[in-house]
Specification:
The structure holds 2 protein chains of 2 kinds. Helices cover 0% and strands 45% of the residues of chain A. Chain A has strands at residues 3-4, 8-11, 17-23, 34-38, 45-48, 62-67, 72-77, 86-93, 99-101, 105-109. The termini of chain A are far apart. Chain B is mostly beta strands. Classes of the chains: A mainly beta, B mainly beta.
Chain lengths: 110, 118
């Protein structure tokens, strides 16, 4: 299966942005979805795990959900800060525990 | 606190092989489930494979089966990832990563740049 994300999104500081991640086949609810943030020149770090859980240290401005009706997951960042500018990747699993990454979304905070 | 330190930059010719290492400190390798992810220049993340604790085996993404081998040396807490029959489109940054605290890849190595060029 594939996970499809928008190539890019942009929003102003202080606003809210939502990044979608649509699963091409199989139910989005069957396997956990993780979200990673990657700043230029750095390794990725998780901002969401197990669909909607925030790792310690990730601000509560980051939230996520899954929607079975659209077979997609969403990452929402509220109160945008310039430091949130980065690439964001969703990741899930197939039935054999193989991990699949989405194509990534470039977030620009302007 | 766990740290993953990878080996340095590699430049290889097409058809050659490359072996990247990932040294674990702060934990033992047996306490982790090591995965490998690569990122071609300007492209997204691509999961290559990793250890599946549910069945105790290393699993590979289908496109890498037969050309990639992931091994571990528990005596030195070092994981290895070898790619054979290198092609120009294998040019990428290769990362080792593992779940530690949470069920996501929350610890990453610094990345190893592999360039394949004639």
């Amino acid at each position: 299966f594939m996970l499809t994300q928008p190539h890019s999104v942009s929003e102003s500081p202080g606003k809210t942005v939502t990044i979608s991640c649509t699963r091409s086949s199989g139910s989005i609810a069957t396997n956990y979805v993780q979200w990673y943030q990657q700043r230029p020149g750095s390794a990725p770090t998780p901002v969401i795990y197990e669909d909607d859980q925030r790792p310690s240290g990730v601000p509560d401005r980051f939230s996520a959900s899954i929607d079975s009706s659209s077979n997609s997951a969403s990452l929402t960042i509220s109160g945008l800060k310039t430091e949130d500018e980065a690439d964001y990747y969703c990741q899930s699993y197939d039935g054999s525990n193989h991990r699949v990454f989405g194509g990534g979304t470039r977030l620009t905070v302007l | 606190q766990v740290h993953l330190v990878q080996s340095g930059t590699e430049v290889k010719k097409p058809g050659a092989s490359v072996k990247v290492s990932c040294k674990v400190s702060g934990y033992t390798l047996t306490e982790l489930s090591m995965h490998w992810v690569r990122q071609a220049p300007g492209k997204g993340l691509e999961w290559m494979g990793g250890f599946d604790p549910e069945n105790g085996e290393t699993i590979y993404a289908h496109k890498f089966q037969g050309r990639v081998t992931m091994t571990e040396d528990t005596s030195t807490d070092t994981a290895y990832m070898e790619v054979s029959s290198l092609r120009s489109d294998d040019t990428a940054v290769y990362y080792c990563a593992s779940p530690v605290i949470i069920d996501a890849l929350d610890v990453w190595g610094q990345g190893t740049t592999v360039t394949v060029s004639s």
